Amino acid sequence: MVRIRGAAICFLKGCAQMDNSHMLSFYSQFVRRGDVVFDVGANVGNRTSAFVALGAKVVAVEPQPHCVRRLQETFRASDVIVVSKALGARKGEAEMMVSNIDTLSSLSREWIEKVRKSGRFSVFEWPHRMKVEMTTMDALIAAYGRPSFCKIDVEGYEYEVLQGLSQPIEAVSLEFTPEAIEPALRSIDYLARLGDYRFNYSLLESLVLTLPEWVSAAEVKDRIRGWNGSIRIFGDVYAKLNRK
Question: Is 1 inside any structural domain?
Answer without folding.
Answer: no
